[in-house]
Design brief:
The model has no long low-confidence stretch (mean pLDDT 89). The protein is 73% helix and 0% strand. It is globular, with a radius of gyration of 19 Å. It is mostly helical. The two termini are 16 Å apart.
């Protein structure tokens, strides 16, 4: 069956495939995410952060919070990744000549909605990754609920929505446009694994450039103690961070963020493209 004659996955089918792709990818990228989060909180470099983790907590500490990461991928990423193509097509931006801003809009919509659904898992994952003790998952969740109630699971939701909109608009928009450019320049098809690999790697770099400041602020807001409030929202966190550490501190952890985004975007997008083809659906 030719690519053009293949049916498109519906919204729920696409979200299921997106969630499966994300669950697979996070196993490999979670340790990088843990290092990045520790760097943002401590201000230490990559080498110091990694050596301290291994020395004080053991190698398995790199996978702290992985169960919460699974929950995040099945909620947030299944929507932002899986729902992108159906939403893009619903906006009339599925054609190769569709304006880039419509593709970015589709990515922003799915990213924003996904972030609201997945915010509790994001908060718990961040607290688990920065926890240097032996507190179990149940203890972390219980302490949060005891000290702040349901609202505690939605701390940092405003900046998380902004981050998700910027991230997914960049990721899916750049990926979609780069696929068109690569096919024109090389003659490869849009479903060719080489096209997907090149496009996802480019998307990973631009994601890092646009998302790093939002990621820093999100980590600081979500990592506040369960029984204390260090920042009065996004604006207060931004002002205090810049005043204390300077503007460039917003890009702290750029290298590990890129080291995570590039392979994560590549693994997620290659996997979902494979699953689309395996189940007989049209590629992104």
């Amino acid at each position: 069956m030719s690519e053009a004659s293949k049916p498109k996955a519906n919204l729920f089918q696409s979200m299921a495939l997106g969630g499966a792709s994300a669950m697979f990818a996070v196993n490999f990228t979670h340790p990088i995410e843990t290092v990045k989060t520790r760097m943002q909180v401590s201000g230490l470099g990559i080498g110091q952060t990694c050596s301290a983790l291994v020395k004080d907590e053991g190698v398995t500490a790199f996978w702290k919070g992985l169960p919460f990461a699974y929950g995040r991928e099945l909620s947030y990423t299944s929507i932002k990744l899986g729902a992108y193509a159906p939403v893009r097509d619903a906006l009339g931006a599925g054609g190769p000549d569709a304006p880039f801003y419509m593709k970015f809009l589709a990515g922003a919509i799915t990213g924003g909605v996904g972030s609201v659904v997945g915010n509790p898992f994001d908060v718990m994952k961040t607290l688990a990754q920065t926890n240097k003790g032996d507190a179990g998952l149940g203890t972390i969740v219980g302490d949060m609920y005891r000290d702040q109630g349901i609202a505690g699971f939605y701390r940092g939701v405003q900046v998380n929505i902004a981050r998700a909109c910027v991230l997914n608009a960049t990721k899916m928009g750049v990926y979609d446009m780069t696929k068109g450019f690569v096919t024109e320049q090389t003659g490869w098809s849009r479903k060719d694994v080489r096209t997907a690999f090149c496009s996802s790697f480019v998307a990973g770099f631009f994601m890092t450039c646009t998302v790093a400041p939002w990621d820093m602020l999100r980590t600081k807001l979500m990592n506040q103690p369960t029984d204390a409030k260090l920042y009065n929202g996004f604006s207060d966190c931004l002002v205090k961070t810049v005043k204390q550490d300077g503007v460039l501190s917003l890009w702290r952890g750029f290298i590990p963020i890129w080291a995570r985004f590039a392979p994560q975007a590549t693994l997620q997008l290659l996997t979902i493209e494979f699953l689309y083809g395996f189940f007989g659906f049209k590629s992104i």
